[in-house]
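Hey, quick one: can you model this chain's 3D structure?
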Amino acid sequence: MLDLAVLENPQAAAATLDPMRRRLLGELREPASASMLSPRLGIPRQKITYHLNQLAELGLVQEVGQRHKGIMTERLMQATAASYVISPEAVGALNPSAADLRDSFSAAWMLALAARTLREVGRLVAGARAANRPLATFAVDTEVEFASAGDRAEFSRELAQGVAALAAKYHKPSPGGRRHRLVLTLHPTLKEPAP
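Sure thing. Here's the predicted structure for all 195 residues.
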């Protein structure tokens, strides 16, 4: 089972949004059969079997073994990933375009960049898995508390200058080189509701 899978297929994405199928995928982080899930979920085995077959056709679950119970053989199914992320590719023409929304101070552009990152990294991960090779990635996540809007603006200016200087220093087009994309975002931290 993968830790995370990025879904580009619209039908697979829709299946993860269906409450019944989402529940099944959650239960199937560990292998189980339809008859094992039935009493746990309070759903008839036949209905679970139907949904498992649909999820298997979409590549969201797979058979990982069998369990013999009397004269019956049950399929043990497991989700193909512990978590799923829906790629913007799944919505086709509604997929946001980072090129069309380019504006350093636009929240819409930030979301389009995030969508492009999800789409591109999802494909790179799938390709690396298929080739059984590692994928070189790097991420930074931190929080900064600014005393004023002026401090935030100055931080943004210095960050942009620093990144531009590093990019200029290390950007060396060459026949054996490989381009990498760097996206930095800065936005207010969400205020989580108190428990």
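One thing worth noting: Residues 19 and 25 are 10 Å apart (CA to CA).
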